Fold this protein.
Amino acid sequence: QVQLVESGGGTVQPGGSLRLSCTGSGFTFERSSITWARQALGRALEWVSGIYTDGDTKYANSVKGRFNISRDISKNMGYLQMNNLQFDDRGVYYCVRWPFEEHSPPARRLGDWGQGTQVTVSS
């Protein structure tokens, strides 16, 4: 049974940092594409970043240069380091096993999703 569990969300001030973690079971990160999506209240799901089966990484323009995606194959975990967080970065962040990207936006009907972790950016 595939399962993904996110952790690491919280409340930070603008300019702050958070590191999200995604713990996987029932599959291997090495053979999976893992993407991060987010959804703020009243807004559509948004693709944030992905790390793909070939090890390639991609970022949405809105987070490029501030966020870093990585994985630890030995631990079967993925991470999203988020720096210089801004108000527009707020939302529930989901770890998804599916190769979403800029031209293939996230859709709930596709892939395996975690339960999400809340990120709040507030002064």
